[in-house]
Amino acid sequence: KGNYWLVVVLSLLGKSGISAAYSIVYIYSAEIFPTEYRSVGVGTCSMCSRLGGILPPFIASLADIYKPLPLLIFGVLSLVCGCLTVFLPETVGCELPQTLQESEAFGSDQSIWYFKCCCSCHKTSTPEENVADDV
């Protein structure tokens, strides 16, 4: 009860993270989805992010049951999502996928702790390029 400043600071940090995530979801999802499915992928990511904007008032009402429950839910979900982003492929300097097959293989040559400054992206070759290389 006496740590109101801690709740305010953590709330503001959470709001900053949410604002950053809303901005990043459009940029990253446009990079990771192949061209032919990009609009559907970006739209789906946007819809899921908006659902995340609808749920907090309902989760906040769980404080009537147990006071720290909303903070625990938000904190645990944030940590889980942060840990899951480690599994997303790095796109800096890489040729982005154009087809569904390239998208499925994208990032498969990267380890979990891949950093662009330490390694270079491998260019995935398409069947058209393989034919051009043979000629």
Description:
- With 135 residues, the chain is an all-alpha fold.
- 60% of the residues lie in helices and 0% in strands.
- It has six helices and no strands.
- It has helices at 4-32, 38-54, 56-60, 69-84, 100-105, 127-134.
- The longest helix has 29 residues, at 4-32.
- It starts with a helix and ends with a helix.
- The mean pLDDT is 79.
Report the principal-axis shape: elongated
Specify Rg, calculated over alpha carbons. Answer: 20 Å
Number of helices: 6
Proportion of beta-strand residues: under 5%
Mean pLDDT: 79
Low-confidence stretches: none
* Spatial separation of the terminal alpha carbons: 74 Å
Structural classification: mainly alpha
Percent in helix: 55-70%
Strand tally, please? Answer: 0
Helix-strand topology string: HHHHHH
Main pleated sheet: none
